[in-house]
Predict the structure of Histidinol dehydrogenase.
Amino acid sequence: MMRRLDTSDASFADDFAALLADQREFSADVTSVVDQVLTDVKTRGDAAVAEYTRRFDRVDFAATPMAVTAEEIAAARAAVPDDVIEALKFARDRIAVFHEKQLPSNERFTDPVGATLGWRWTPLASVGLYVPGGRAAYPSSLLMNAVPARVAGVKRLVMVVPAPDGHLEPVVLAAAEIAGVTEIYRIGGAQAIGALAYGTESIRAVDKIVGPGNAYVAAAKRQVFGTVGIDMVAGPSEVVIVADDSAPADVIAADLLAQAEHDEVAQSILITASPTLAGEVDEAVAAQLEVLPRRAVAEASWRDHGAIIIVEGEDEAAALVDRLAPEHLELAVADPDALAEKVTQAGAIFLGAMTPEAIGDYVAGPNHVLPTSRSARFSSGLSVFDFLKRTTLLGLDRAALEALAGPAMTLAASEGLDAHRLSIARRLRAS
Amino acid sequence: MMRRLDTSDASFADDFAALLADQREFSADVTSVVDQVLTDVKTRGDAAVAEYTRRFDRVDFAATPMAVTAEEIAAARAAVPDDVIEALKFARDRIAVFHEKQLPSNERFTDPVGATLGWRWTPLASVGLYVPGGRAAYPSSLLMNAVPARVAGVKRLVMVVPAPDGHLEPVVLAAAEIAGVTEIYRIGGAQAIGALAYGTESIRAVDKIVGPGNAYVAAAKRQVFGTVGIDMVAGPSEVVIVADDSAPADVIAADLLAQAEHDEVAQSILITASPTLAGEVDEAVAAQLEVLPRRAVAEASWRDHGAIIIVEGEDEAAALVDRLAPEHLELAVADPDALAEKVTQAGAIFLGAMTPEAIGDYVAGPNHVLPTSRSARFSSGLSVFDFLKRTTLLGLDRAALEALAGPAMTLAASEGLDAHRLSIARRLRAS
């Protein structure tokens, strides 16, 4: 029986707290295994990577090259249906256009005391992109990670993807080429993260690693953080839909299930002031589940983590959304813009009942890599900023230095940092 | 004997690799202690925080309130010399002006197919600011962390600072008031991080924690990451100075020592094509060390981690800078702008011999919280972006949905996500 909450119930505060505390992630402790693999790759390079790959993926680099060849990529592309290739290009182009608008400007100005101030954005020199193996390799995720890197100006974009028993999904190789990936290696797991972070004889180290992976990959990314940059470690996906009577129940149900089919621990929540709509959606979910290919997954997600919350009205809905801080927020209401103004915590907002999240997952343009598990309170979806770094600039002439020296020397002295103070005083004394 | 490298030496590649590998951080493994403290604070709240504070800081919350009072702040402010108060305000105002220029714009546009796209930046609702106790509590760092948060629009800015034996530095409380901190609690260590992350009866949980701390604080921040956001865990500070014959040797030496006085594991490196300047700087460092109050620290840093690198010319210097990716880069050369253009990896650049890093540490305006230990390759200094999050927006009408539906459904089908495809198809079928 799916969870149903009502803000007018006496038990609501407790019920909602339980929903917020819903533990959807159980990460196995793989730290010690991962630690050993990373140390081994750092020490022995290619030899270690080859051994782990033989053991875990049953691929022998004595017989198959570690790097995926241009011929393999061409063959993969030829094996993918034309409509999929065209859809990938369509998605790539829209993602690129949207992310180009995010590119920030450099700044440089002279302030009233004559100091030159500013900053400069530069792309990361190299980025590693982890792509999971087998069916978990979503070409759409590959585009969402790779295209913003290319838009930011990253020149070297190194993809790693495990090839269990030698198999690589053709659509993934085709998507990599379309996205502008510059190198591909058929390795995975913690050994691939180690190779990207430390470098081996065959693979030059990168500056940052992005992309989803299993518990081993996630643990390895956490451990190499500092040596290289990493993206956020994503949790299970989630959607909150706020709907009023203007929204068709079957469409709301379809969107709840689109989220639920991802994973047994995905979460779909409907918030509505209409008990009628709530009832209709509940029935529509049950009916649509009957014919869904991924029924088992979607049913478990909806049963174990789904919820319908009955509220008084939109202000209350907005307040609950802010507490949930969902990855995806659909506003299937008559005036979605007005409601969007009341919400401050969400990774992405989908405005109106004609805007299914699935369009955003694939082709709208905004990134589908978004903060999960309430982290939208303090973080944002993937963007060009994840592939840029900022260097600040300061330039002084004697007049500007004289204008700033006094307070700086006062503070240096008050902090007991005399060499700091002297580094300023010495310049003022110089002729 | 300080390290001296020369790119014309046969051993240079090895020497430079050794310099890059210079291990300046030895973090004690405090994970299990920290884990226990965090679990205890999460479970028992105020009671646990009070126990740890009594044990570690010898402060009893039965006698002294956990929250610092308005009277204490007023008294602290009265105890700080006027020139220090004025210098703090001067710094605050300049930091605010610089960071206001970083504030990004919201974006909203309609694309050729009629889709509404955009994004919106909102401030984090609440931020915790860790300030170390005793002499390690630098008021300048407090301003550098707090002012950008206030500029970003963060309403609730919660400072924690340990009060060993009940003592709080008056200048730190004064700086907190000047910076716009809204709550102050006299707690520190992992227990303070736990209180900020999980909340207690007295302290509401925050969304992100920033600020420097010891090994326990750093480990605690790493462990609560995910529950809340955290800033980068900073390593020891470092400067690289590229200088030519136009730079006065005594000034270069003073700047090398200003860095070295921070910490025995701070690092100061001079890169120059002039063996003459190199010799003069080396002598000037020795002479200036004689009279430096923090001589022991600066001498150890310069001896153990300092280096002078002799290069052929500016192109070679720029290439080495990029490999070092320093936190601070001073360009004490005739044409610093031209050289700055050749460098891509640095946290902050100081242009010309009249621009001491110490001005940037205190009053210039740019942030002095910068990426250390080569992390400028993939990250940036603290900025308003650390206190903002971005929500992307997508809105479709029927025509826009129809224009995007085909490729999205093709990709959903190719990924085996039928409920995704159906969530689109169902809308197209609806009248």
